[in-house]
């Protein structure tokens, strides 16, 4: 992973949920989110199923916590991984169905186990004791109400790590607004620039519209990544973009949108580790890696646009596995 720049902005601020907890607002927010499960519109699919009654929508999860892994992840971007690693919580299920998903057993096939909020709280506290720098929620959109129940308990017991919201970027602005003060660091994807590519790759032509609206809402809340004297992020937003073969990711257009909408201070993580997984082997051009030329063109677009904050990420040694 090649670091471009790391601004030095010191901060000793407590995570946002710590402040909300003191005002009783964290419990109120958790209750409001839980109520949303009664007719679920947590993501842009707006299935309107009663998950409290055990029904499931596209994401195939009811009102229980379904978690695939809780672990220390050392391979996130340096301001997130630091020296102690990022404390990842991999939620099972997903609001998208990307044909190349590297974690498809977790996202599409329900691999995971039911945890109580108390169990997840204890696991997050264990991560804190192991010295991770944050709690990194991987694909959390459809399980935010369940996670918040655990967060209320963990915060009472002394959890004090920033919350990272690591999302596909397929989000509702309404939900992002409800997360204000709870999420410290937004880590969204910008996956596509065209509705056709989004439909081909993940079955949702509205991805681009919903994604861009959500990115703007996150940016208004969090702004650029804030990194302390030790090089660790405690607030802000870092946008990820995976370069797909055959131009499917619309990399120049995605980066141009970030430059235009967020400005030069936007933090971008440009990733080149795509490999065919899940259904992609049967769907050219997704049946191959991005070529060296395609990666070079993506890097050139990044530099041409003056987006200097962030990373050009080489292949993750974990191969995308939790
Ligand atoms: S979170 Fe799940 S049930 Fe709710 S709207 Fe999205 S896909 Fe449907």
Write a short abstract of this structure.
This is Putative pyruvate formate lyase activating enzyme. The protein is an alpha/beta fold and 322 residues long.
Q: Quick one: how many beta strands?
A: 11
In the CATH hierarchy, the third-tier topology is known as TIM Barrel
Order of helices and strands: EHHEHEHEHEHEHEHHEEHEHE
What percentage of the residues does DSSP assign to strands (E)? 15-25%
Radius of gyration: 18 Å
- Ions and ligands: iron/sulfur cluster
Supply the number of helical segments: 11
CATH architecture: Alpha-Beta Barrel
Helix content: 25-40%
Instruction: Quote the average pLDDT.
Output: 93
* CATH class categorisation: Alpha Beta
Number of domains: 1
Alpha carbon gap, first and last residue: 18 Å
What can be said about the biggest beta sheet? Answer: 11 strands, mixed
Helix/strand/pairing class, anyone? alpha/beta
């Amino acid at each position: 992973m090649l670091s471009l720049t790391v601004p030095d902005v010191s901060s000793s601020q407590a995570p946002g949920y710590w402040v909300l907890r003191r005002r009783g607002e964290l419990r109120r927010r958790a209750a409001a989110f839980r109520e949303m499960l009664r007719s679920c519109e947590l993501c842009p699919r707006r299935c309107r199923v009663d998950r409290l009654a055990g029904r499931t929508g596209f994401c195939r999860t009811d009102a229980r916590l379904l978690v695939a892994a809780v672990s220390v992840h050392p391979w996130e971007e340096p301001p997130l991984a630091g020296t102690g690693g990022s404390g990842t919580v991999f939620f099972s299920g997903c609001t998208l169905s990307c044909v190349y998903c590297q974690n498809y057993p977790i996202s599409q096939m329900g691999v995971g186990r039911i945890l109580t909020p108390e169990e997840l709280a204890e696991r997050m506290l264990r991560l804190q004791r192991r010295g991770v720098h944050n709690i990194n929620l991987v694909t959390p959109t459809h399980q935010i109400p369940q996670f918040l129940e655990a967060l209320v308990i963990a915060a009472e017991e002394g959890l004090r790590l920033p919350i990272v919201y690591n999302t596909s970027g397929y989000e509702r602005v309404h939900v992002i607004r409800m997360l204000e003060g709870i999420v410290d660091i937004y880590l969204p994807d910008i996956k596509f620039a065209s509705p056709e590519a989004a439909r081909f790759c993940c079955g949702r032509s509205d991805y681009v519209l919903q994604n861009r609206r959500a990115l703007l809402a996150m940016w208004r809340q969090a702004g650029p990544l804030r990194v302390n004297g030790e090089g660790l992020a405690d607030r802000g937003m870092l946008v990820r973009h995976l370069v797909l073969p055959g131009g499917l990711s619309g990399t120049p257009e995605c980066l141009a949108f970030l430059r235009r909408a967020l400005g030069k201070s936007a933090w971008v993580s440009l990733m080149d580790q795509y490999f065919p997984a899940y259904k992609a082997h049967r769907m050219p051009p997704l049946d191959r890696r991005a070529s060296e030329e395609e990666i070079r063109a993506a890097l050139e677009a990044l530099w041409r646009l003056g987006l200097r904050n962030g990373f050009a990420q080489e292949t993750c040694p974990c191969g995308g596995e939790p």
